[in-house]
Amino acid sequence: MSHFLLRLYRKYAGGGDRAAFQRMENPGYRTGSFDGLHHPSDDDDDDLVDIAGATLDFTSTDDVPPLSSGYEEYSSSSSRAAGMNGNGPTKLVDPLEDPVPGLGTYEDFNTIDWVREKSKDRDRHREITKKSRQSTVALLRSVSDAFSGWLLMLLVGLMSGALAGGIDIAAHWLTDMKDGVCLIGFWFNHEHCCWTSNETTFQERDRCPQWQSWGELITGTSEGAFAYIVSYLMYIFWALLFSFLAVTLVRAFAPYACGSGIPEWTLIIKTITLVLAVSSGLSLGKEGPLVHVACCCANILCHLFTKYRKNEAKRREVLSAAAAVGVSVAFGAPIGGVLFSLEEVSYYFPLKTLWRSFFAALVAAFTLRSINPFGNSRLVLFYVEFHAPWHLVELAPFILLGIFGGLWGALFIKANIAWCRRRKSTRLGHYPVMEVLVVAAFTALLAYPNSYTRMSGAELISELFNDCSLLDSSPLCGYKQANISETSVGNSLADRPAGPGLYTALWQLALALIFKMMITVITFGMKVPSGLFIPSMAVGAIAGRLLGVGMEQLAYYNRDWVIFKGWCSSGADCITPGLYAMVGAAACLGGVTRMTVSLVVIMFELTGGLEYIVPLMAATMTSKWVADAFGREGIYEAHIRLNGYPFLEPKEEFEHSSLAVDVMRPRRSDPALAVLTQEGMTVGEVETLVESTHYSGFPVVVSQESQRLVGFVLRRDLLISIDNARKRQEGVVSASQVIFTEHTPAQAADAPTPLRLRGIMDLSPFTVTDHTPMDITVDIFRKLGLRQCLVTHNGRLLGIITKKDILKHMAQMANRDPDSILFN
């Protein structure tokens, strides 16, 4: 499941670095008042960044987003600056007393200030609580505000569940359309078309007169080479058409919709292209992008509630719950979805978010169950019903599957990252449509002859998980018929010798395993919606089924061996190959994603196999240990590093003995730190400083001589305030004094009106001393989600540390290119 862009949105857009003082290209403010501060790029085509295959326009690559014309009204500022309004001799515009539109807002891919946002929410809550004691209307508003979070979760669950049900139904229909069409209604898929047929047999339950393959429809017969060739060509045609439509829609209307990115306006395009991409037969799944779809729903619905529309920290809590909803509707695993959000996605996960995630996942699962897209009246995607318990001896092959999953995960990550790096660094990345079409054609050409690669990933996994019954017509159940006396008592079926049909199926599975391993490497990361869960599970399920059949035959022919004596007697159902497929699927998925707890819970919810938690746990932990031996990064962390996103991975330990003074800027060879003084600077001087630098914020000091720290001002807020003051306050000119003090100093009679900006200043910026160990500093950044941290010595400002500074330092310590951090 390609959910690493979801992690990118939560951790990068929510906790990544848009920190101050990064020497990046000018943000390019687009309002007319700031045209003079815009440094146009020499070549706008160079200002593009590839997000897991998506070509995004980041012309404004600074830490400050471009200013738009529609700013949201700024709510009351944080309590840290409250009560600091002095009274000047004239009516001055103060951002605290007269809120300025645009202050405190964020654009897409902009790091939020977690401390400020939480402070704003606390102030808002105190104000509502205070007013609720004064009137009944205010009390009702307080109750409505408290209930709004649960109502939002209800809406997210309902909307996501409904969309997931529609995606499942549409994908199943289009996937079957590649093989044929239903004569009684083209809108029926193969299974629904044959439901009402009275001519369907148990042995050939997929064949009915109402459903005809394209070869049979065109040639009039289902037999012969010509009919096979026609069906073959039609399969390739539909695969190319679906993949072409998917990549074209993504490229033309919603470049964020590839992979698993989270821009809210791409919801419709993402939904349509996800159905097309899955139906094209590419080696990808819809489960990861369904997390994206759920988060898009949450982003849109947040605008209905003021509390979430105006506070980015609250909105990101909703996105955490939406990630749980996405997994819930993708796999029918509400509990696993909550754990997935906690373990893999969320940067910040308070207890209230846990409860609301559980509620939203419950609502989404109920909605999906009501739609019943699988037509089996079950919520789970791959329901299994194994009749034989597992034995302690089988832990050895389960651990062997874990080793295979870890090796495959490490190999896949290295190979996929190498291929994606090649795509980024060569002309291959300039032709995304052609790449998708070539891969789709290659996939269809090789997949059609093998029935196990021709079928969809979900159908293949369901087939591999299947426990053979006596009359099962699946090729994987092609055993020699056993005598009645050898059949076990009850529902279980005794182990039987493999027949010619099973051996043929095993050869096809072996070829399918090689094909899936190779094609998934080059498919993941293309510019179509793609998930990684189903392809990874398919690889593991194939390997597990092969090992399971091997163990079954070994036990059948060697019951007198020590390891089989006492529990595998003649006529007993000793080995269940479907269980091995399930364990192998979990092992390979764990090796690729490095998930543990949430993966095990998802797997037993996915299959209903609660009895087999121990084998799943053993294989999952083994795969993680083996994969970690080759590198601690999962596939999502690897792609984050490949794209150079400034994200501090919480799982990565800082093992160096550096101090803050070793990492801070400016260095000895750098220019002096650009600062503002609390008084004495004019508007013109401030604008000149802003125009001559590309920093995203400025420390405020008492004076240039003392360098005593007073606070910190964001570049964005500074520019908005100056521009707004020129429009709304008479007498503000370039010679006007800019004042950050609590009280306005005495002004000459003929002096222009001063501009008070204390209201936009952070009076308590986070600071560390120059001798603070960097491991502590890194923990501060991770746990508080800081944008930057100032470095002082005895109260005097020395420098600044940003998240990108830390990442560059860590890259240097690991002998990697430090300049790869940022948008490379």
UniProtKB/TrEMBL annotation:
Please provide one cellular component term from the Gene Ontology annotations of this protein. Answer: Golgi apparatus
Location(s), subcellular:
Endosome membrane; Membrane
Segments passing through the bilayer: 150-174, 232-253, 265-284, 290-306, 318-342, 392-411, 431-448, 505-526, 532-551
Q: Which GO terms describe its molecular function?
A: voltage-gated chloride channel activity
Write down the membrane topology: Multi-pass membrane protein
Ordered alphabetically, the record's keywords are: CBS domain, Chloride, Endosome, Ion transport, Membrane, Transmembrane, Transmembrane helix, Transport
Family that this chain belongs to: Belongs to the chloride channel (TC 2.A.49) family.
Protein name as annotated: Chloride channel protein
| Organism lineage string | Eukaryota, Metazoa, Chordata, Craniata, Vertebrata
